[in-house]
Amino acid sequence: MANNLLFSSYIVLLLAIGVQLGSCATWSEDASDIRHPGKCVIQGLILSVGEEYDPKDQCVKFICGEGSVATGFNCGSRTMSNCEDLGYADVSKPYPDCCEKKFRCFRNGQEEIMQL
């Protein structure tokens, strides 16, 4: 019984992580600079391996990795049928909290502002 409960909890956790990760996009890029060996230089900021950078007013995060390779994360694509994308709801929030988007939708002749 306890094993079944533990297994069920594990599955729910994996699904929750999958939903969160499924809504983002990631990429890697060379962030080396000969003046700063072993570090990442991102938008003029010098980061050590493992350090994170969340640029203000952008919904993105960078993590400096081994070999001066930076991994970037953004929200990926979110769309709603028959709706106009009004952009991010609040880019001042740190990633991934800033990923919520606003949409203007028309349903049954009524305008609705929705967040997703």
Automatic annotation (TrEMBL):
It comes from the Eukaryota. The keyword Transferase does not apply. Residues 1-24 form the signal peptide. Keywords: Secreted, Signal. Residues 40-105 form the Single domain. It is found in: Secreted. The keyword ATP-binding does not apply. This is Single domain-containing protein.
